[in-house]
Amino acid sequence: THTLQIIHAATERSQSHRRFFASGTFLYTVGDAENISKASVCRSVRTVYLSLKRLLNVFVTFPGHKAIRTIKHAFYGIAGFPNVIGALDCTHVRIKCPSGPHEADFVNRKSVHSINVQRISDADCIITNVEAKWPGSVHDSRIFRASSLYQQLARGEFSGVLLGDKGYPCLPYLLTPYQEPQTEGQHCYNIAHARTRGRIEMAFGLIKSRFQCLKHLRVTPPRACDIVVACVVLHNIACLRRERQPRIVEEEDWGNEAVLEENETGRLIRDTYANNYFA
Q: Could you tell me if residue 209 is left (phi over 0), alpha (psi between -120 and 50 degrees) or otherwise beta?
């Protein structure tokens, strides 16, 4: 109830923020549509996204609000992949060209200015972890290694594994696909891995469908990061309320470079999965 009061207080002042989040319309266009100044629109939008950002730890928690057994069971039901507690990936959100000496840091592999956002989802496309603070030039694996969640996983604080793509190293708590599968078990493992990990791509699509502003945030990098977090919070609220899902936007392929690094223990655990569950 207190949380709902905070959301209501943040959003009742003006409806201009809704037009901005839902359509991604320029702030001055939003102001013209509602006959208010651009400065007023900026203040309204900022009030909303900062209020939502303060609710991050309420609505975004790893591995989720459900019991780990329930989370694993839901993932297992997708393609028979056991012991999964999250699907991991990064996505780029376009921003305007930032000023200052660090402009080049925000240019990604497609020569587009962006922030690179790490997210983890459960089997229901609810986001359970978000890292929105990195320039577009930073590799996915570096973002993961710099996160507090990486340290928690390395210490064995969670029972289960994440699924990540070829842009991550294979670790005891982060399983990736075989780049060159040799056996039937490895091929079947890759198929199940792709289907199960697909939940995070589905979550990305839902978020970008709900919040068209994420197609291109024409704001400074710090504000872009705050807006992304606000959209994640709103997305999770929509999922928890079982609101109607929009048509999913296909996630753009940002050409993630494969990580050649191999962790021996991670590789052995992956082989165990392939041999015991998919052979």
A: alpha
Rounded alpha-carbon distances, angstroms, from residue 94 to 40, 130, 217, 253: 24, 17, 6, 13
Beta-strand ranges (E) seen in the chain are: 84-94, 114-121, 127-135, 161-163, 174-175
pTM for this predicted structure = 0.88
Query: How do the pLDDT tens digits run along the chain, 279 residues long?
Result: 455 555 555 555 555 556 677 665 555 454 444 556 667 778 878 888 899 999 999 999 999 989 999 999 999 999 999 999 999 999 999 999 999 999 999 999 999 999 999 999 999 999 999 999 999 999 999 999 999 999 999 999 999 999 999 999 999 999 999 999 999 999 999 999 999 999 999 999 999 999 989 999 999 999 999 999 999 999 999 999 999 888 876 766 666 666 656 689 999 999 999 999 999
80: left (phi over 0), alpha (psi -120 to 50) or beta: left
Cα 217 to Cα 224: distance, rounded to the nearest angstrom: 6
Residue spans of the domains in the chain: they are 1-54, 59-277
Q: Would you mind telling me the total number of residues written for the chain in this entry? A: 279
